[in-house]
Amino acid sequence: MNWLLGFYVLVWPALTLGVLVIICAAVLRDRRKAKAEKRDLV
Fold first, then answer.
1. 31: which residues sit within 8 A by CB, 6+ positions away?
2. Buried b (16+ CB within 10 A) or exposed e, 11-42
3. How far apart are CA 39 and CA 23, in angstroms?
4. Which of 22, 42, 20, 21 is nearest to 31 (CA)?
5. CB half-sphere exposure, 21, CA atoms < 13 A
């Protein structure tokens, strides 16, 4: 039961990191595309 609680506690930071990486990658891709088209990001 202890390992299950430890796994549960450690999974959330990993999921959060994964979502953060996906969001950052999307923003960087949009930024590069906007720069190539010579327009603002927003």
1. 41
2. eeeeeeeeeeeeeeeeeeeeeeeeeeeeeeee
3. 21
4. 42
5. 6
pLDDT at 42: 86
The residue type found at 12 is: W
pLDDT tens column, 4-40: 998 889 899 999 999 999 999 999 999 999 999 999 9
Residue 41: the pLDDT is 84
Helices (H), the chain: 2-36
Question: Residue 1 — pLDDT band, cuts 50, 70, 90?
Answer: confident
Provide the residue ranges of all domains of the chain, joining segments of one domain with +.
1-42
